Amino acid sequence: MSANYLIIKKRVRLTTAFRDLTAGIEAWRLWSKLAQQDLVARYQRSWLGPFWLVFSAAIFLIALSIVYSTLFHMEIAEYVPFLAMGILCWGFISGVAVEGVSTFVEAETYIRQVSVSLFIYVFRVLYRNILIFLHQFIVALFVLALFGKLRLTTVPLAVLGLFLLFLQAGWIISLLAIVGARFRDLPQIVTNVLQILFFITPIFWEPSLLGAKRWIADYNPLNSVISIIREPFLGHVPILDHYWLVLGTNAFGWLLIVVVYSRFSKRIVYWL
Amino acid sequence: MAYIDLDNVDVDFPLLKPEHRSLKRLLSAPLTRSRFGIDARRRLVLHALKRICLSISQGDRVAVVGANGAGKSTLLRVLAGIYPPISGTITIEGSVAALLSMGLGMRDDLSGSANIEFCLLLQGVPPKEIAHRRDEIASFTELGDYLDLHVGAYSSGMRVRLAFAISTALDPNILIIDEIFAAGDARFIKKAETRMVDLINRSKILVFASHSIALIERFCDKAVWLDGGEVRQYGPIKDVCQAYLASLG
Known about the structure:
The complex is a heterodimer of chains A (272) and B (249).
Chain A: E1 5-8, H1 15-26, H2 28-42, H3 51-71, H4 76-101, H5 103-106, H6 108-111, H7 119-146, H8 155-182, H9 186-200, H10 215-218, H11 221-233, H12 240-264, H13 268-271
Chain B: E1 3-14, H1 23-28, E2 45-57, E3 61-65, H2 72-79, E4 87-93, E5 96-99, H3 112-122, H4 127-141, H5 156-167, E6 174-178, H6 186-202, E7 205-209, H7 213-219, E8 222-227, E9 230-236, H8 237-248
Parallel strand pairs in B: 3-7, 3-8, 5-6, 6-7
Antiparallel strand pairs in B: 1-2, 1-4, 8-9
Helix pairs in contact in B: 3-4, 4-5
């Protein structure tokens, strides 16, 4: 049963996006359930269940640590915590991008049968990825504790960084979901872009290694997104520039979503 | 007062061919002298509903008749808020529930009772009522311990029972039905029919699309005849059905 009063007019109104966003947040029971069910379904009948997430993160980290700490001549105790935080954030970012594209496509049966805010499906993908993130976070925290790098004084800053990361993911999923419903080439494009981004973003190497070409890292918004989480967890205070860049892309992204969603939300069901 | 008012409603389906679905074409369109235009105004569309004006007030029991592809299901989906019209105004007062197809959102990997809970959430049932309605649905299905088993392991009859019980557990002002479905073994069909009739009687407005003249004459007092996406006739059921049947020859 949907709203009591429904008027659909021709004009595009920016309030559409705000109304649907509010309705989406209010339906948190629905999207949190959907996300949990997705994960249960994904790991059903496997022995480790969602702890496969923990396990694969650990394996990946160990393998990379051994090779790259040697290549970069870095102390294991310095390199592994750095890498652990970077990989953790990257896993979330790439998961959000890959799954964001198919947000509406995978929800097609629901969208065709019930009239609810489309943001419910966006939050489903977001929450699902946050749950995955939290599983892998266990590995990162373990690594930090193991090498004695965990600094509680800067943890509030790290929490702020995480909040900004999740906020950022919200508009990215929304945008990819809308474009991905219309253009079915997007998954391939996203996969390719992600592959490049993984290597040009300071995840398994430090920005200082770039020397004179440091700007490659400094102007990369992903570097800022990761830095404001990684550095506080390692006991450093990130430079203010990172925050400006992250807040800027967040504001820009959400504004873009308000406009794009209001303009196209009514067409999405016809694209599926 | 529950009512529905459609004023000049148009619905177009864009025909998105695979080549239109590709970003590459859009990007290369200005470069190549392609014979396929991707002009926003000259896209291929299907006019599913044309200038529909329809007003339904409380107490009306409206049948939707018409040949295949006349736009019956599209009209029901417009009323349910699923297809936003490209032009025109829709005013609906009252809560709407639509029985459009069986097994809405059921997930094979979940248990029967988890599915009940989830489908109720999806239909927008307030969280406070969910536990109570879940029990009611569970007892109606008579599936007992099977409800703890994942739905993938159900027989098709059991699955239909569950889907039927869930989709008829709502209590809307406006009820929209796309073909009545009866399910299960002989005894269950009888039980299901009682439940369906009950649901129909509780609703303040019924909009019911069916090809069975016997069924619509049983439940409806008005009828709208759709033809090629347009309203051909709207009025008392006897007149409309007569004209419709006559047109079939």
